[in-house]
Design a protein that fits this description.
Blueprint lengths: L3 H28 L4 H13 L2 E2 H8 L3 H13 L3 E5 L7 E5 L1 H22 L4 H20 L12
Antiparallel strand pairs: 1-3, 2-3
Length: 155
């Protein structure tokens, strides 16, 4: 059975990792003029294709007003465009531009590079165990209700 000191040591390392990854991600995204929320929106478009702002709000768990601000900023930067929906004239599709698609591809390359840096020298079974451990921790956090509320999403 583990004790309080081990709980604290494990949590200290998780928090140190979170701070390092957050700093790295913030600096990396800033090079492209992005925030975490704007990058998340681009990532969703990459994953799902063009979406309505309502579908984006649902995918990002944010308010429709928050998505409007995110899309406005991305459109002003030339990363997304708004286009008429092909079957619902009341709706608008948010679509990544060629520049937006290239920015997401660069994010994917950066993610792969960091993944290689962190895990390439580890045996596959250790990586699998690490993933399983993180999945278990994330599951416990979600079960405990530790999630962001839409109003807490930064723009």
């Amino acid at each position: 059975m583990i004790g309080a000191a081990q709980y604290a040591a494990a949590l200290d390392r998780v928090l140190a990792l979170v701070v390092l990854l957050d700093d790295d991600m913030t600096r990396s995204l800033a090079r492209d003029g992005l925030t975490v929320s704007r990058a998340h929106l681009l990532w969703e478009l990459r994953r799902q294709g063009p979406l309505t702002q309502r579908a984006l709000a649902d995918a990002l768990s944010v308010s429709a007003r928050n998505v409007t601000g995110l899309v406005d900023g991305l459109a002003a930067a030339g990363l997304v465009s708004r286009e008429a929906h092909p079957s619902d004239r009341r709706a608008t599709l948010v679509t990544p531009t060629a520049h937006g698609t290239e920015v997401v591809r660069a994010m994917e390359r950066d993610q792969e590079t960091l993944g290689r840096l962190l895990f390439a020298d580890m045996p596959p079974e250790r990586v699998a165990a690490f993933i399983a451990t993180l999945d278990e921790i994330l599951g416990k956090l979600h079960a405990a209700g530790v999630t962001r509320q839409p109003e807490e999403q930064p723009s």
